[in-house]
Every structure is written in structure tokens, then in C-alpha cells.
Amino acid sequence: MSSLPTSLTGASVPGAQDSGAATSGAGAQPSSSSPPTHQPPAPAAAHSVPSPTFSPLYQQIKALITRSLQSGEWKPGEMIPSEMELASRYKVSQGTVRKAIDELAAENLVARRQGKGTFVTTHHEDVVKFRFLRLVPDEGEPHYGASRVLECKRLRAPAEIARLLDIRTGDSVVQIRRVLTFSDESTVLDEIWLLGANFRGLTAEKLTEWKGPMYALFEAEFGTRMIRASEKIRAVAADETAATLLSVPVGSPLLSVERVSYTYGDRPVEVRRGLYVTTRHYYQNDLS
Amino acid sequence: MSSLPTSLTGASVPGAQDSGAATSGAGAQPSSSSPPTHQPPAPAAAHSVPSPTFSPLYQQIKALITRSLQSGEWKPGEMIPSEMELASRYKVSQGTVRKAIDELAAENLVARRQGKGTFVTTHHEDVVKFRFLRLVPDEGEPHYGASRVLECKRLRAPAEIARLLDIRTGDSVVQIRRVLTFSDESTVLDEIWLLGANFRGLTAEKLTEWKGPMYALFEAEFGTRMIRASEKIRAVAADETAATLLSVPVGSPLLSVERVSYTYGDRPVEVRRGLYVTTRHYYQNDLS
DNA sequence: TAGTGGTCTAGACCACGTG
DNA sequence: ACGTGGTCTAGACCACTAT
Fold first, then answer.
1. Is the model's pLDDT at B14 over the cut of 60?
2. DSSP letters along B89-121, please?
3. Which residue in chain A has the smallest CA separation from B106?
4. Which of B222, B214, B223 is nearest to B259 (CA)?
5. What domains appear along chain A, each with residue ranges and CATH number?
6. Which pLDDT band, with edges at 50, 70 and 90, does B52 fall under?
7. Residues 122-161 of B with CB under 8 A from A
8. What pLDDT digit, counting tens, does each position of A23-37 carry?
9. How many Cβ atoms sit within 10 Å of the Cβ of residue A278?
10. Does residue A233 sit at the B interface (CB-CB below 8 Å)?
């Protein structure tokens, strides 16, 4: 392909060879004046067919940055290189890097702090924590309750869990059961399944010793970061087990929350079934 | 005040006189070359104190556009002027208008369509409809059920409704009660309170005759557009009334959804209390 | 004082939709 | 062919934070 090569794709822009990227770099070359270097050799190539799978430059940059996040080149809580640095690394303008980071910030993968830099988000921050804990007390501030682990064992995935985790029935998974307590009231009964491959060495002890959000542990100890989740919510009646563990009468209405959590690349890594007592708490949701 | 006047604030940029805007227009003047006009008279003013309430230009433009949306200058479904037109109207660059519209699009007030223009969103579109209807059937596609209006009357706001609507107890409100039916199953019992001042002339007949989402009626007939909403969700037991209307046993678990909806300027205009039967449907929510 | 992200501009070209 | 939004660049200046 006769594309205008070196200027943009020098630093291993992905797919620079395949159909997607070839036509995308056609952007602006300064009209005249400007520095002596960098003049494209043959503007004739501009009329090449607009390849069917067009991907903007900033999307490619975004994918590159995401890959570095995923590989752990920049760890949660750390600062990523400045826009200028990234621009020169990828051989694009600062504005293009900015647009890529804008989207990553909108997806909460990174957070910008004016005057300081751009930082990889982490489940240790309050902001992130309450994105995944939507239970709010009727009175008082949202807070993290105490977790009592009932069980943590390895077993083979039942069919439905396997389907949700996109693995095969019988593949290894870790099952956790726990109760969350707020102000001395048992409020949440969770049953959690995790991808076995990602959580070798996870034990009840580790869970019990850990202070703070479970996702922070997963991120720090197992290198698995929850990026987004999808929930299905229903009202159900408490069965005997739930009633006992949550100290409510059998048949009491409980909020059932079935969550599937995803990490980079939209790969599911967790299924979580929660039963919430909603007499003194409610599930907060904003439609916008 | 000795601000650089005519160039930016000519077309009635709001607050151009007050503290906020004076310092904000300081942006870029082209280094040299460029057209003969427009050279700022006194670059000395650049060192004026950075006013405590700094508001970027694009935020001011965004406020202006929002005002035009609110006033009905551009109605739901219509196209707003092109970026170039708005840029020349407000005497700013296209890029600044673009950033303003970017935010409005992110808030779903407008939608961009490449090659066509930017359009005011409307509750007639599918995309918007399902932002406010989160109930999804276990089997089959999401769809809009049939609405049976039980009641629609004017009355004085009880204390709690008044508090949520930010009005005084006893102020006029419209109360609606209705049942939503999906596939011949009564699924949702709604009790709705609307700001009386905004909904004069709303009757049970109008509601019954209207085919389509209620919010589309409100938008088309009453000029009140729901922009965002906040919901508090719990599990409750069906009382006799709900049990009868929804054809479930007394005490059955139901999803209770208390919604407050807001229009422009974050003014609350609706309180809605819904009871959902979640045996064949679930409430869908995405955390990200 | 230096470095970072944030704002603003101006101009070029591209992809898309419609005549 | 034309107008729309979308991408990309280059350069200037501003606001914030740290040293």
C-alpha cells in the first residue's frame, strides 16, 4: 500500500498495515510555512479508496493506551505519561492524545487532575468505590460496611454460571459467600463466582484480613480490575437460608441483584448474586 | 471594566459584564499574520486578577444554547443551527461551539448526526424512551406495554410530595394512577404527581387517547421535557390494593421505584412511585 | 519557575448524507 | 456539488500544583 508512512505510524501504531489504519492518518498537514521537515512525499495517495473499516487516529491511540493499562505498564494509582510525552511517543499531535484520553476518562479508566497529571483509577478511591456499591442508607452518609466471609472454595462452574462467565461448564471457579453488615444490621447476602484462572490463591483468610472494598483486593493482589458491570434487579421473597443469615422473617421482600462484572476487553470475570434488605437502605440509580 | 470588548461579547454573551466572563475570553489571538482586523487594543489587561469564578467560554456558549432549547427556539426533533452558524452568531470559533455541543450531546439534550446536523432529542425516539423505561422482559425484546389510566385528578400536594417537587404543601398538583400491561400481564402500577402549574388541562381522556410514551405527550402538549431522573429502589410486599390491581397475592414481593424527574435547570417536575412485578421482567442497570 | 492539564483559535482535510 | 459533523494539527495562553 502506498500510504504516507513514517510520520504517524512509526511507533508501532496497531493495524497500521491492515485495512483499518491506512487511510486514517490522512489528517492535516499544515498548509504552508511551518517547519522544514515532515512534508508528505506524495499527496497523490489521498484519493485511495476510503477503506470500509475506518478507524480514527485517536481511537488507535486510545487502544494503545488501553493496552498499556491492561499490561500493567502503568498501575492503578500511578500517573501515566503527560500528553506531550504520549504525543511524541506515538508521533501524533497533543490534541489527538487529548481526545483519546478524554474518552478513557469518560469511561473512568483514568482520571485527570489539572496541574498534576493523568492517573490510573483505582478501587481504593471513594469515587470509584461507590460506582459499584449503590446501596444508600435512609439516614446518614453512604459508607462501607463490615464483611463476614461465610465460605470461599474452589469448585467447578455450574452450567448457568459458566454461560455468564463465557467459560465451559465444569471449568474452575471460586465461590465466595459473605454477609455485609451496616451499623450492626445484616443487610447484604452475596454469593460470588470468580474466574478460577484469575484468582489462584484466593482464600477466606485473605478476604477476612483485607480491610476495604473487595474489588481493591482483586486489583491489588490478583491484577484483575473491574471496569464495568451489568445488573438485573428483581424483588424476591426470602427463603430460609437468606432469612436466617439476614435476620428477617421467611418470605420478607428482598432486592435481588444479579451482577456480571467485566474487565478489559469486556471479558466477564465475576458473577455476583446479592440479596439486599431494603428497609433502612435503598438502591440509588440515576437516569440520564 | 477595561476588558477586550467587542470581539467576543458582542452577541450578548451572558454575564459578559459580571465577574465571571470578563477574564475568560483571554484565549488565543493568532500570533501574527492573520486578517487585518481584530487585533486586541491593549494586551496590558491580560494581567487582571483571575476572577474567582472562572467560567470557560464554551460553558457560556453551552448555557446560551441550553437557554434557546428551553425557550423553544429549537423544538424537540428539530435541527439546531450548524456549528458554523452558531460560531458566527456568538462570535467564537467553531471549535468552541463544538465543545459546548459535545457536552450537550453527552447529556442527551441534543444528538449529532454526521452529514445531517445536530438535532434536539425527543421522547419519541426509541433510544430516549428506553433510557427511562428500564424494565426488560426475560424473554423477547423490550417494548412498550399498554397503559390503563385509573385516575387523573387535580389536588393539593401532600407534604412529602411538595418537598420532593420543591413546592409548598397544598400547592396544586396533578395525580395520575395507571397500570401498565405487557403481553396481557399487569406488570406496573404507577402513581404519578406532576407540577400543577406545568400541566393545566391534562385529563384522563388525553392520557387514554395518547398512544406512546407519556413523556412524549408531556413534551409535545405541555412543553415540559424530562431531562434526567433519580430513582430509589426497594423491595416491598404487595398491599391489598396493589395485589388486586396487579393480580398477585397479597404480600408478594414487588419492586418499588420512587422516581423524581427533572427538566431544564434541574427543576423537579414529577414524582413517580412505581410497583413492578418482577417475575417475568427485571430492572436493567449498567454500572460504568 | 517549571510542568501539567484546560481553553481557544484557525485552518485543512475526511466521511457522510442529500440533492 | 454542497453542507454537515468528524478528525487532525499547530500554536498560543490560562489555571492549577509542586518545587
1. no
2. HHTS-HHHHHHHHHHHHHTTSEEEETTTEEEE-
3. A288
4. B214
5. 57-120 (1.10.10.10), 126-283 (3.40.1410.10)
6. low
7. 131-132, 134, 136
8. 333 333 333 333 333
9. 22
10. yes
